[in-house]
């Protein structure tokens, strides 16, 4: 680590404090015009966090350095999903062609068991979604640390420093924070450790208040100085295990010490001459995107027209078939060694699924097989490109917005409720919203299936697009539609993330369509093929970066669906 970098980081911290106090005049993007710059971009759901990442890039950090710093900053500035108490996935693609992924999905604690969410009546108790039993062993700090060890270049401590400063010195309460805090008031009333963070000495925070998080700053300082051990061992581990024991939770010091992220080979596919590099299981995202793109490659989507009724019909039919495979086959690969991933992403499988699509008539999702479960719409995605053209696509989550809404005792950070992504009742699959299939049942140390889909599209061995989104089960479809918008419909990255989207997930057999995104006559023509529709609000919020290999310029876009989001670059 060079002294100049340390000095520079000191001034960056000062600048961050000033940013919190002054009107922001950064190079940032909004709407349908991408930010176009020459050197580097971070696009995330929090302008402050994007700025932290860009500062690291300007200090000579690479894409992984910036991703680590951005993720930790989001844990301070975007508590609905930014986290150190949750988990996620990082996909990396270097300009040199090297691509890899880091899986830091949460795990079931050692004391978890297959029937822990089954009540005396044989039904789910719902404890997988709320309270202390919903918390999985967090993976974020270990995953970021592992990715940094493998691919980072600046010292770890320098990447944690901006998050410490933001937590210690405070950030302004924006409308997005204010409304999130207000919505969750009943939980702050329930959990004193959460009230200590999300209430201002017992009163609600107001817009413009300076929000300081001293407990979180102390936890981050331990992580800054001790690396992963600052979270998984010592003071934090003892505090978290004791807090769990006092409140009927399962996570122990042994669970924390045992947690390991996994560097995994990406799942790969091709689409119209592009390479799709994405997250393998326990994400269902990469497999899902590649399976759908393979089916859709057999249609002339550009000729069907963007968001026409015929276009929406073939998308729906690809989604229906792919989400059925998802429910049947996917789970944690470390517990499901025989998952047929290569078959699911093969062109042959796609061809046979495509052959069953009737252009005039919707298929029927077979209710007799499996039904679907509720999955939270929260989570957050960000994308990074550095001056050498290396890209990171990272999605991580607490599951629900603000996760379990339980702040970990004196640690100042929110705990996830990710256990809700397991199938809760073995063998019980019904239209009321439960899946009981084997691959995703609770087993100690197992990772729960996820829809998070951080993806990088490459051409001739070089990355050209980093993309992903929050949105629970809709993530896979959102990410795929942005890719189609760019490859088939020639939209720029900002237009591609802004465009209206829809979602079908096999069961329930209904298509949700963003309000005001599709004309009434399009919806009429679509419904005439036999599709049932419902209107919904925003579907996800995609964060994308495109590299124009002809001009060498980087194009960044933050979806305007994310209230505090921004693409920041230099
Ligand atoms: N909790 C959202 C996901 O992992 O897909």
From TrEMBL:
Gene Ontology molecular-function annotations: acyltransferase activity; glutathione hydrolase activity
Alphabetical UniProt keywords: Acyltransferase, Hydrolase, Transferase, Zymogen
The keyword Repeat belongs to this UniProt entry's keyword annotation: no
A GO biological process held by the record: glutathione catabolic process
Family: Belongs to the gamma-glutamyltransferase family.
Protein name: Gamma-glutamyltransferase
Origin species: marine sediment metagenome
Lineage: unclassified sequences, metagenomes, ecological metagenomes
């Amino acid at each position: 680590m060079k002294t100049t970098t340390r000095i520079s980081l000191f001034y960056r911290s000062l600048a961050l404090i000033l940013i919190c106090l002054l009107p922001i005049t950064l190079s940032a993007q909004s709407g349908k015009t991408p930010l176009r710059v020459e050197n580097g971009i971070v696009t995330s759901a929090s302008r402050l966090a994007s700025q932290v990442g860009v500062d690291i890039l300007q200090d000579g950090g690479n894409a992984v350095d910036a991703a680590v710093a951005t993720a930790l900053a989001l844990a301070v500035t975007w508590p609905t999903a930014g986290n150190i108490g949750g988990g996620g996935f990082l996909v990396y693609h270097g300009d040199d062609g090297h691509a890899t992924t880091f899986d830091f999905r949460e795990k079931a604690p050692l004391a978890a068991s297959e029937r822990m969410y089954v009540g005396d009546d044989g039904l789910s108790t719902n404890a997988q979604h709320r309270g202390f039993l919903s918390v999985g062993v967090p993976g974020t700090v270990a995953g970021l640390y592992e990715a940094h060890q493998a691919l980072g270049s600046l010292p770890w401590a320098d990447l944690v420093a901006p998050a410490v400063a933001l937590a210690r010195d405070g950030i302004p309460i924006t409308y997005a924070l204010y409304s999130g805090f207000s919505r969750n008031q009943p939980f702050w009333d329930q959990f004193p450790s959460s009230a200590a963070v999300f209430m201002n000495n017992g009163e609600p925070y107001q817009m413009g208040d300076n929000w300081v998080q001293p407990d979180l700053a102390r936890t981050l300082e331990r992580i800054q100085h001790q690396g992963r051990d600052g979270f998984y061992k010592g003071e934090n581990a003892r505090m978290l295990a004791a807090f769990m024991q006092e409140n009927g939770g399962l996570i122990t010091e042994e669970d924390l010490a045992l947690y390991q992220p996994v560097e995994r080979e990406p799942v790969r596919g091709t689409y119209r001459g592009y390479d799709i590099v994405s997250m393998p299981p326990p994400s269902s995202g990469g497999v899902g995107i590649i399976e759908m793109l393979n089916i859709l490659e057999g249609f002339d989507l550009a000729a069907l027209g963007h968001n026409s009724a015929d276009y929406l019909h073939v998308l729906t039919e690809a989604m229906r078939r792919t989400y059925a495979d998802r429910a049947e086959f996917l789970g944690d690969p470390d517990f499901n060694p025989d998952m047929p991933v290569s078959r699911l992403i093969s062109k042959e499988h796609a061809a046979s699924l495509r052959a069953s699509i009737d252009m005039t008539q919707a298929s029927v999702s077979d209710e007799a097989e499996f039904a679907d479960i509720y999955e939270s719409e929260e989570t957050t995605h960000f994308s990074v490109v550095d001056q050498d053209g290396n890209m990171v696509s990272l999605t991580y989550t607490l599951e629900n917005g603000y996760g379990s809404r339980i702040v970990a005792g004196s640690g100042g950070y929110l705990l996830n409720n990710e256990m809700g992504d397991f199938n809760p009742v073995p063998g019980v699959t019904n239209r009321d919203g439960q899946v009981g299939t084997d691959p995703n049942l609770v087993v100690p140390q197992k990772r729960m299936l996820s829809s998070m889909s951080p993806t990088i599209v490459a051409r001739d061995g070089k990355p050209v697009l980093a993309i992903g989104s929050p949105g629970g089960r809709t993530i896979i479809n959102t990410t795929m539609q942005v890719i189609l918008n760019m490859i088939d419909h020639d939209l720029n990255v900002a237009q591609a993330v802004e465009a209206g989207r829809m979602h079908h997930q096999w069961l329930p057999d209904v298509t949700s369509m963003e309000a005001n995104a599709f004309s009434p006559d399009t919806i009429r023509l679509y419904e005439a093929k036999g599709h049932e529709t419902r209107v919904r609000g925003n579907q996800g919020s995609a964060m994308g970066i495109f590299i124009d290999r002809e001009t060498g310029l980087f194009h960044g876009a933050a979806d305007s669906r994310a209230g505090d989001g921004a693409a920041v670059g230099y």
